[in-house]
Hints:
The complex is a heterotetramer, with two copies of chain A and two copies of chain C.
Chain A: H1 8-18, H2 48-60, H3 83-89, H4 92-95, H5 107-124, E1 128-129, H6 136-151, E2 157-161, H7 166-176, E3 182-186, H8 195-201, E4 206-212, H9 223-232, E5 236-241, E6 259-263, E7 279-283, H10 287-290, E8 298-302, E9 308-312, H11 319-322, H12 335-372, E10 378-379, E11 388-392, H13 400-406, E12 413-414, E13 425-429, H14 436-449
Parallel strand pairs in A: 2-3, 2-4, 4-5, 5-6
Antiparallel strand pairs in A: 1-7, 6-7, 8-9, 10-11, 11-13, 12-13
Helix pairs in contact in A: 3-12, 5-12, 6-7, 12-14
Chain C: H1 50-61, H2 84-90, H3 93-96, H4 108-125, E1 129-131, H5 137-154, E2 162-166, H6 172-179, E3 183-187, H7 197-203, E4 208-214, H8 226-235, E5 239-243, E6 263-265, H9 268-271, E7 286-288, E8 300-304, E9 307-311, H10 328-364, E10 380-383, H11 385-391, H12 395-403, E11 411-412, E12 421-424, H13 432-445, H14 450-454, H15 467-472
Parallel strand pairs in C: 2-3, 2-4, 4-5, 5-6
Antiparallel strand pairs in C: 1-7, 6-7, 8-9, 10-12, 11-12
Helix pairs in contact in C: 2-10, 4-10, 5-6, 10-13
Family (chains A, B): Belongs to the GcvP family. N-terminal subunit subfamily.
Organism (chains A, B): Thermogemmata fonticola
GO molecular function, one term (chains A, B): glycine dehydrogenase (decarboxylating) activity
Amino acid sequence: MSYLLNTAEEQQAMLAYLGVPSVEELFVAVPPEVRLRRPLHLPPALTELELHRQVEELAQQNASAAQYPCFLGGGAYDHFIPAVVDAIASRSEYYTAYTPYQAEASQGTLQVIFEYQTLMCQLTGLGVANASLYEAGSGVAEAVLMALGVTGRQDGEVLVAETVHPEYRRVLGTYLANLPCSLRVLPAPEGFLDPDDLQAALSDRTAAVVVQSPNFFGHLEEVADLAAAVHRVGGVCIAVFDPISLGLLRRPGDCGVDIAVAEGQGLGIPLGYGGPYLGILACRDEPAYLRRLPGRLVGQTTDRHGQRCWVLTLQTREQHIRREKATSNICTNQGLMALRASVYLTALGPQGLRETAELCLRKAHYAARRLADVAGAELRFRRPFFKEFTLRWPGPTDALPQQLRQRGFLAALPLGRWFPSLADCFSLAVTEKRTRAEIDALADALAHCRPPSRP
Amino acid sequence: MSYLLNTAEEQQAMLAYLGVPSVEELFVAVPPEVRLRRPLHLPPALTELELHRQVEELAQQNASAAQYPCFLGGGAYDHFIPAVVDAIASRSEYYTAYTPYQAEASQGTLQVIFEYQTLMCQLTGLGVANASLYEAGSGVAEAVLMALGVTGRQDGEVLVAETVHPEYRRVLGTYLANLPCSLRVLPAPEGFLDPDDLQAALSDRTAAVVVQSPNFFGHLEEVADLAAAVHRVGGVCIAVFDPISLGLLRRPGDCGVDIAVAEGQGLGIPLGYGGPYLGILACRDEPAYLRRLPGRLVGQTTDRHGQRCWVLTLQTREQHIRREKATSNICTNQGLMALRASVYLTALGPQGLRETAELCLRKAHYAARRLADVAGAELRFRRPFFKEFTLRWPGPTDALPQQLRQRGFLAALPLGRWFPSLADCFSLAVTEKRTRAEIDALADALAHCRPPSRP
Amino acid sequence: AATELIFELSQPGRRCHRLPACDVPPESPEPDLPERYRAAAPPPLPEVGEVDLVRHYVNLSTRNMSIDTHFYPLGSCTMKYNPKRHERWAALSGFAALHPYQDEESVQGILRLLYELQEFLGEISGLPAVSLQPAAGAQGELTALLIAAAYFRDQGQTHRRKVLIPDSAHGTNPASATLAGFETVTVKSTPQGLVDLTDLRSKLGPDVAVFMITNPNTLGLFERQIRTITDWLHEAGALVYLDGANMNAILGITRPGDFGADMQHYNVHKTFTGPHGGGGPGSGPVAVRDFLAPYLPVPVVVREGERYRLDYHRPKSIGKMHTFYGNVGILLRGYCYIRTLGPDGLKQVSEQAVLNANYLRARVAQVLEVPHPGPCMHEFVASARKLLREKKVRAMDLAKRLLDFGIHAPTVYFPLVVPEALMIEPTETESKATLDAFADTLARIVQEDPDFLRAAPHTTPISRPDEVQAVKQPILRWQPSGASSSSPPAPAAPAAETPQVVPAAS
Amino acid sequence: AATELIFELSQPGRRCHRLPACDVPPESPEPDLPERYRAAAPPPLPEVGEVDLVRHYVNLSTRNMSIDTHFYPLGSCTMKYNPKRHERWAALSGFAALHPYQDEESVQGILRLLYELQEFLGEISGLPAVSLQPAAGAQGELTALLIAAAYFRDQGQTHRRKVLIPDSAHGTNPASATLAGFETVTVKSTPQGLVDLTDLRSKLGPDVAVFMITNPNTLGLFERQIRTITDWLHEAGALVYLDGANMNAILGITRPGDFGADMQHYNVHKTFTGPHGGGGPGSGPVAVRDFLAPYLPVPVVVREGERYRLDYHRPKSIGKMHTFYGNVGILLRGYCYIRTLGPDGLKQVSEQAVLNANYLRARVAQVLEVPHPGPCMHEFVASARKLLREKKVRAMDLAKRLLDFGIHAPTVYFPLVVPEALMIEPTETESKATLDAFADTLARIVQEDPDFLRAAPHTTPISRPDEVQAVKQPILRWQPSGASSSSPPAPAAPAAETPQVVPAAS
Lengths: 455, 455, 506, 506
């Protein structure tokens, strides 16, 4: 078999050393009655050439954003990935190493993570960031668990704006299902969380409030006002952000957010059908937060020669030491994705991030104007937005994605599956990759999709 | 600009250190009358994202062997490249290093080349191989130049079989154009060099004889007999081989060949529209040959601590020391391509090379049977062949490649451009990548290409 | 220079990546972005050129040991060779450039792959219902426990609040149980390293929801009484959860479903060789019995004739664990691995992993105490207890010294039940020659001067970082002002005594 | 272990790559391959597993210095940063998987790219007719000389047998001239490092075919009298050939065609940053004046309306230099580079390369003698003559010691006209900080103990290989029998006195 090293002769030599006649003897501890007495029902082994052919065929059965201009958003975006990101991430010293327990053998990974933590602090304006989480949805859940601990309101209430990505909300619900706290969704009929509505919902039971800006519809929330309101009742304000947007927008930390969470996919990580992605989590640099931070942390120290170096630190928060008392059960991070995000942000720098955000903003607004001009279509909400917006459409939206794909686009996320009241709406996202010509062509394509029998 | 490092401030600091007001002052030695006073007429600079789009468009304007099963040969073959080859060749310590002059800083490249030299000796059965040449055509020319020196017959005759790749012959002709020797092509009307015909052409003026096996038509030559005949008149026998074929065939060194040359493209190097490829050259381990070997050589030695290590050696053959008396003007090798070939051969090992050759042989013979069954087609020659064969076709062959491509294949190399007498013939090559289904489909496609008005 | 932080290379105004000019007409009549949302300046990211960036990260990479460069016998982590072909395939744009919200018709290829992988994993475990969604083993554990909770709630058995966990288990087990809202109860091990049946019996009761067992366990031993254990649990109305971290030992040999597990997770990044990525991404699918299938997270990939689709209509589902469908890129590599090996190949993987481990165990046993009787499965635990007693040389000292010989250290101080533990997992992709070199090196090291060992490693870029300082004065980010950090002192939790190095379960 | 040869890891029966079973019916009625052609056994290649192979080559790679890891100021080689985007683009299957004999309709994209590159190179040099075929600079030189020979033959001037070459030229110049059938005549340099016009004048005559000039020359100096020189040559009926190795200094500043060159080659791997690949592949296109266009190798890419095709119908062509069309993969990178930089960017490349060189020259001049007056162009030559005289420290000793500081050595002992030469080319892609670090290091090194310097480097994997032994008892391949080689003693050519390290022209 392809990856087994020892030849039959070497196996014999090893068995001889062990004094056993066959490998079978090494499995004596497995009771005969539970042994599998038949081959697994799996397809037969394939050589690289054969499997290459089959895997390429499977890939070709998909229509990818490499072929079709992609206007889909909803938490995953087709941003451009500079070639340096792939080049660095394909260094096998990074991708074939594991958790950097042995600091002396892992300074590469450790320093990368320390730099990632710093970049996330620079990006968010907060004082501490962990070594990354799986992705944004579970990141929100981990942030809420932190907030429950920080406030001590373990059986309190968690408020989530309806404008937070519905799947983040669902993951959060799953995580909290068996815990004593309660979870309440705050309606946002106009596509944003009205600070007055939040004010009305807050109480001294409020442990955490989760908002997202730009939110699921692409709109900007009044984060600073919301955070201030949460603080007045002693709660923790958790804000989900779009890292690309921070080239232009005020940072969560500067808006008074306590814990900032984001999906880091836009930072040089391929769309990849939804994963692996990168859960960003940063928070206030305060002991109450730090003590409850989930996931790994890398810290700076010195070695026995006095050299600056890096180690995994504050591990007493973690499961392998605290077991059932750990702040979370997480025992990995998304190391390789954190590396990609680090290289991406470093390649862009402040100016590149600003220009990228500016392009997204301007192209999205151009697209919104063009598409709202298509007969029958209109912008559903009147709120400031960043790179994503919602259109109302005269008729059902379920077939739109397929119709648009047949005209050459990956576009239109129908919102009815999450918001029955928005069954006639869909959202579009526009990144810096999209050209004016593509946007214009999308508008033409949409015009052709109009259902014939509606006014 | 993308790759310039110094900021305007740094440039100012450097100019200040130099005490000159502007960069312009540094160009004082360039006479004003030859200064270019206008911008170059070139397209404007493009960012990575913009150029990415344009380059992808250019790539898509080509029909590649990744989309179409490729049956083209003629010196470049669509063999499978295992992923390990790309993975190793993309290590930037290899591809961004240069010539290993400083042995202490270049043991990686030096050891790779030493291993390559060894692999080439193992492959060919000869005692010495150089660090590689540009590609096969100029490799043949270099081999002939060696032979002129070895025999001392500088104004003698060089005989080349007509079955040697016509472009190798043309490159050879170009190289020899201004030298005192003469060049004669030995006809091979039956698709191979008849030893009797060679015998008749040999004389004590014969410096070198160049043959190729498998030859341009895919046929095997009687290399051992030919070499013996050449040796009887004191000439040097140069044989071009196909490295893949040596999984099955007798090695050039074992057939008495003095200098073996090959195109190494099949050893893990992409088709790449004809280059960069790899010129393999190996020869007898004799001082007369070694002294005249063109190109670089890596040798083993020990360092001041007695450790085994590798260095560029026998440089007194080379242009940078011997200048006009050098054995050749070559001052590079195809380092990265030699690395690819080394990884490829190591990945295959003896058994893998044998199986690859066996698959080529059997599939090519199956294809020959299937295609010769197409009405009107027939095998042009009756000679043993390896992976390439020649078909006669009832009508002109110029349009065939395009017709077959429109039916989904890259296939049919019309031979008329080199051999007017074979204007009704084309060749096909079949590698281990081709499947029975593809071969059968090609036969069907060919049947549809039949010119309607011919019998 | 490799140890300079990227921030220290920053030069104001220097740039790497550049963006095209905007090709759409300017905003009008009003600005697209109201002023109150705008930041005065972009974030203070580093400003470097492309060559700076590349040199920095390329040089940094060489300060790692990795599978591609060194033998890496990190117990419990299954550091096997990561095939290069997987990287090539995962990068195909037909996979890498798929948006998760594309219409199903446009993603039939990847859906088919994921569907088939669900089938494969179901067959390998004998637990036919599979969710690929968990992003890592620990999330797989949590998913399974949430499924159990939902099941018992559905059954009206909300009194089942307890999860039993052997003392040799990975720390993720109790942490996941707590996170899922359960109480944890520890079950002791026997001196032979197996579950203490008497202790287990005594803790079994109507309040037990789940027994989380790792089998083979973290000592590398197969629970000989596994059928008794699972039978007892089932008789008590509880579920058995298998921590699948050690599946590499039993592929095609025995199936968790056949020995009584009701749920398990996989570590695709271990057993099916997704690259570990310096700590992730992993992938932790769960497989469960059919009666638990309704509770799996949504969506599940289903097949209808020749079409595949994402099934969200599962009313009893626990919900979602991941925004989308899990770490598809890692799952894809696992799929390719299973298809490369096939049924015979997978069985040979386990046979060779076990043979390698036993051979190395026998060789190491000449040098160090190996406290539990063999044969072992795919890994084993040695103890440096005697060295500590006699020479004050600890397991950690041996681990560090191995680095000097180009061998990554084994896992040390885990499992907790073995003093001065060295947990060694060679995997099937290492040769006898590599194992011999390890054993020879270890034999040489234990003879070395204790002071020299306590100062090891001697050839690595750094040596013996001060971990206490890192905890007492945590510096968790670089700051422009200079050396000292404004980070607050560490949380009060106990620190100094805890082991320095411990393994990842997932 | 990294120094083990791959052959020493071989284990009979071990395998890496495997092939599918044959899917075509067996041969019949007679065997496909007559027995007399068959080898008894396949070649004795090494037998290793995939992890062996990967570890071997990955670890070996780290025993190189490279642009991606170190400053590499190797004079004359233009070791600038190699953009990663080029590697991504060159790997696109629409380029990498094109067969050279595809029909022209199916390769319009690559033909267009090559056509445009021909145009770009013609514009940059002011020599409008371009062949992309030469595979390296040295082959470009040879191509140009064969063109000159063909031209003079065509003109009936076969008496022009001489090629004039300055003594500071790359060794490839005289070697190429000889190979092209010419006799070479050396022209002296002045103490200022420029062509000695008196000597040139004295050697000009009706038998001169070509003057090969490198401008800027190998001392990094621009020939101020270039117009005089080229005018004289043209008056004498000869052609002027420009060795384009140093084009990085003059992009958009001055054009060889404008200062009187009739032919030139480019080094795409230098000026336009094709990666150097540890010694190749390079690419050496030639550009010539229109009257020489008929002699260019076939094919040339031509445009007809919107279509591109390969033009083989050029009756006066010298023929072919390459089986196909040259090193297309490298040409493609050069194309992308030119399109990335654009006209302004290319000029800035030269300006910055020259600024960097002058700055570094001024800093180095504080430490070492820099014999020729400045300003220099993109590189300069320092001399360690004084150190040799005073401390018996040679240029080579400095070069080796630099390696200890993570800096690749400059080119040493070239050009031959400067004793104890160190030829330093920083390129435009290095920062002031990097240049300062180089200068500071050099200043520190020259103060060090001479014995210590003569034993340098001290931190590299090996130090001071015995090159004499390598020549006297050449071991040019590994052999299974063991240490000693059956290779014969070296050829009798003079060896011991020659400089150890010299630069590549091409």
